[in-house]
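Hi support team,

I've been running sequence recovery on a batch of backbones for a student project. Most finish fine, but this one hangs at about 90% for roughly twenty minutes before it completes. I'm not sure whether the input is malformed or the queue is just slow. I've pasted the structure tokens below so you can try to reproduce it. Let me know if you need the job ID as well.

Thanks,
M.K.
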């Protein structure tokens, strides 16, 4: 079946365990278009091409272009989902925090944890038992939270708006969802996921953090690597003002990229989700798992049949600690 003869309907969003684009791909596989002018487009993008809908750039169409036919209207919720997802990607701090992302199709999920015995063994004596790494499920389920925004607008209010301008609002919704999920991730790093795995805390004395305080936390990581530091804006400014952070190469990288490296080799990130006078240090390669119940969800019925009005855009996710010892917290006494 050619892409320009597909019958599109809202029921394609209701296929269990599959996104709208995945359903389209089964009906119109992208492999068919290798070596053609449509190569590089996925099934959804080919449908935009079919109905001549430009969603970005100079000459982008108006919102009303989606609703020219019932078939093209069926594309609108997927356009909204993609724009929102792009916004969550722009708030990419989560990508620097999460070691693994698990997508599930239910609201119940039990993560795993690893227990290592005799980590200090350097050489196995003949006949000696081999040290074991025991993987077991956590006692408590991962708590998933639904985050989202209600999109409130009428078709009449938006029909003449350009899609690239509307996308800005949708991306901002995605950014807001991502910020809420960062707050959830920080909470798990600090307080654990309900399985008695709160982060170990080291207190610093005095009014301000010192380089020696950072070294004290760095020394606690043992077999893990302290490669990521999280703090709020005020604490980040205080850290960057330390004499040890004024190395010309460190400063040059910050001035050129806005990314703050540290003399300890850890990347430094700021987020308002971290409490005042607190620094979270962790190994991003093995500290945190993100669990998602599907992708960004959009109320497709309201977007197609009622042409907006009120439609919920949500993302359901939770976080679990993989190796509790891969997280250390430094805070003011």
């Amino acid at each position: 079946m050619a892409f320009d003869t597909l019958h599109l309907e809202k029921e394609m969003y209701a296929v269990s365990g599959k996104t709208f684009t995945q359903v389209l791909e089964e009906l119109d596989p992208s492999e068919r278009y290798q070596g053609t002018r449509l190569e590089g487009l996925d099934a959804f993008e080919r449908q935009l091409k079919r109905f001549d809908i430009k969603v970005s750039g100079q000459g982008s169409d108006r919102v009303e272009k989606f609703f020219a036919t019932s078939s093209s209207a069926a594309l609108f919720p997927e356009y909204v989902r993609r724009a929102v997802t792009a916004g969550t990607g722009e708030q990419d701090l989560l990508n620097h925090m999460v070691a693994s992302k698990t997508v599930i199709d239910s609201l119940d999920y039990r993560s795993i944890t690893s227990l290592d015995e005799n980590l200090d063994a350097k050489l196995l004596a003949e006949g000696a038992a081999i040290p074991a790494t025991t993987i077991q499920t956590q006692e408590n389920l991962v708590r998933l939270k639904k985050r989202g925004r209600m999109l409130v607008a009428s078709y009449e209010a938006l029909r003449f708006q350009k899609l690239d301008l509307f996308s800005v609002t949708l991306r901002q919704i995605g950014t807001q969802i991502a910020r809420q999920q960062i707050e959830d991730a920080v909470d798990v790093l600090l307080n654990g996921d309900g399985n008695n795995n709160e982060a170990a805390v080291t207190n610093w004395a005095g009014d301000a953090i010192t380089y020696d305080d950072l070294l004290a936390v760095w020394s606690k990581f043992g077999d893990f690597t302290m490669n990521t530091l999280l703090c709020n804006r005020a604490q980040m400014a205080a850290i960057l003002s330390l004499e040890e952070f004024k190395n010309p190469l460190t400063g040059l990288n910050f001035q050129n990229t806005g990314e703050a490296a540290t003399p300890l080799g850890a990347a430094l990130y700021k987020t308002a989700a971290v409490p005042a006078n607190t620094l979270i240090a962790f190994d991003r390669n093995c500290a945190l798992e993100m669990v998602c119940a599907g992708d960004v969800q959009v109320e497709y019925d309201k977007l197609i049949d009622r042409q907006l009005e009120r439609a919920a855009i949500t993302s359901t996710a939770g976080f679990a600690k993989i190796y509790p010892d891969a997280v250390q917290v430094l805070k003011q006494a």
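--
Follow-up from support: It reproduced on our side and the slowdown came from queue contention, not your input. The chain has a mean pLDDT of 87. No action needed from you.
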